[in-house]
Design goal:
Helix content is 40%, strand content 18%. It is an alpha/beta fold and 289 residues long. The protein folds into 2 domains: 4-97 and 253-288, Methylene-tetrahydromethanopterin dehydrogenase, N-terminal domain (Rossmann fold, 3-Layer(aba) Sandwich), CATH 3.40.50; 98-249, Rossmann fold, CATH 3.40.50. The chain has a 7-stranded mixed beta sheet with strand order 7-6-5-8-9-11-10, sandwiched between helices. It is elongated, with a radius of gyration of 19 Å. The chain binds NADP nicotinamide-adenine-dinucleotide phosphate.
Length: 289
Amino acid sequence: MRRVLLQLDPDPQPASFDAIVALDAGAEVVLPYGGVTPENVVPLVHGAIFTRGPQQLHHTAIFIGGSDVSQAEAIAQVVQNTFFGPMRVSVLLDPNGANTTAAAAVWCVARHLSPPGPVLVLGATGPVGSRCVRLLAQASYQVKVGSREQSRAQAVVEQVLLHHAQAKLQPVQTSQPDALRQALQESQAILAAGAAGVQLLTQAQWEQSSARVLVDLNAVPPVGIQGIDPQDKATSRGEGICYGALGVGGIKMKIHRAAIAQLFEQNDLWLDAEEVYQLAQRVLAPQSG
Ligand SMILES: NC(=O)c1ccc[n+]([C@@H]2O[C@H](COP(=O)([O-])OP(=O)(O)OC[C@H]3O[C@@H](n4cnc5c(N)ncnc54)[C@H](OP(=O)(O)O)[C@@H]3O)[C@@H](O)[C@H]2O)c1
């Protein structure tokens, strides 16, 4: 029986990237659907769960992607509600690559910062940054949640507290130089998850900070943290250990492929940010950076 992946994408044109990764990761047939909405997804789910017997349903799985994270999450909710009893298939959520990218970025921080210390996340309000905050919080890191606007940082803090009530989170308005300087002084790691092509930190700023681990997810010049090369992967620069966007990207791809492969091992997995990070910890050997 062939391993079939339904690729559900809210965008009009489903992402070829996600289809190719799925095929490389062991899916034998990928069925890409674009323009998927919470209103039209139920028949697709019924097609997935009613075509094979419960013992064979691990040969079918669902990937939910697309560029609109909140739309993908709304679709995921309907998918989950459509399953019942043994009539379910495993699901991976990775809209905007946010879960696999955040898992890779947090894994890079964690391998150099254990026991957990304070981490400043810049651009923490985007889909990737907010998941980084979530995963760091779950792993008991103190997280400084950076945004140009205090209210946006505060909104992420409140959202993450819904998932992890004990999280130690502090909003930081990075457009206020004093607030940024203090956060840099108090952080042992900096994770920059700002928009593509936006520099968030100069080299002088991070060299004068207390941070010894630097992770930048922006590959588009200028990069997010000046002085980091996109190819950096545990590269020493001054007193910092640096990861650039392409260095993290290779780790992200390993996680993405492993997550797809795992979908076909059983029919009841639900892989969202936290589960993807757990998987990353299992599949990435400590020395593989
Ligand atoms: N390496 C990989 O494999 C990989 C995979 C996926 C994504 N990425 C990269 O990861 C990064 C984060 O992705 P994303 O989709 O979460 O980003 P995003 O939503 O486009 O932006 C993240 C945050 O950046 C801040 N920002 C936007 N424009 C800015 C500006 N002009 N100046 C300063 N800050 C600005 C905003 O925060 P505030 O408005 O709150 O300040 C925004 O919420 C991107 O650079 C993306 O290219 C990398």
